[in-house]
Amino acid sequence: MYKLLSTDDILRLGFNHGDIVRARRCCLRRLSRGTYLVRRVCELDFHRPLWASIDQQIHQVFVDHGDIRDEVNILNASLAAHFSHRADQRTDESKSDPPEEIYSHISDALIHGLPVAYPVTHQIEVVRPGVNRRFKSIQVRGSQIPKAHRATIAGAEVTTLERTLIDVARSYNLDVSVPMFDDALHRELTTREILTTLDRCLEKRNSAKVRLAIDLSDYRRESPAEAVAAVRFYEHGITGLEPQVTFHAESLRRDIRVDFCHRRARLIIEIDGIGKLYLGSGVPRHELEQERRREQWLRDQGWQVIRISWKELFEEAKFYDILCAIRRTQNATA
């Protein structure tokens, strides 16, 4: 859990508003009005009350990756702050109870531990029956959620895992929803019986889109990047690619598992996800050598290997190359 502080918390620690402004240039990040995230341990002893619990390993350091993962992490931290604020409201007898609220969509996906492949919103998403409003940091939807589609986590009301998956698929693109379906199926958190939940939803908007996301999902895929790639294959009309195929490489004395394999075209597709893209010099040299030898073995066996970086998942070029490679094989066979 990250270290989260309200303005009042910081003032009680002996800081004034000018100190808060200066700390925001250092180890403090403003999440929303009156709510702050302690990003790291800094060198200023004056700031020690802010980050002492991080130094003592009670709270986590907020890691700045310098890429799109930071935006998802910030949303997660904002969600935790909102979650905590709501809990305080419920226990403060001097204040009226907060309005009925159910976490939903991307926010609820984070609560359920589902992967968000890339940032699609900076807002916390909740359902308040009969209310449709969009604030700077919160989007309120007025949907009707049946009791059967509700659950409680740590005292907060949320939509069930299945309903969350359906809501995300209904409201967001396939490259957001399919990675979540894949993850839930891979970890056996749900099954394709999710269609039963879909049939019982009061909302019928974009139901065909939800069914398509379910059809495209596959428990064998192991990362959001692979799921995004599978969506791109569908969008470009590429078929015949089987996920997670294993080869026995006797000369290397180990098995080799590839992300996607097109057997007829003798084509291997390897996906370098967001983590690999930004690892840089943090990759141990022997792992780089192992990867090089692995790919060379595949080429020696007559396989063409195409690697797709995270950035290339959102471009056309590599998928055109894949389509051409498959068609060349089909033409040669004909």
UniProtKB/TrEMBL annotation:
SUPFAM superfamilies: Restriction endonuclease-like. Residues 258-316 form the DUF559 domain. It comes from the Bacteria. InterPro entries: DUF559 (IPR007569), Restrct_endonuc-II-like (IPR011335). Pfam families: DUF559. This is DUF559 domain-containing protein. It comes from Brevibacterium iodinum ATCC 49514.
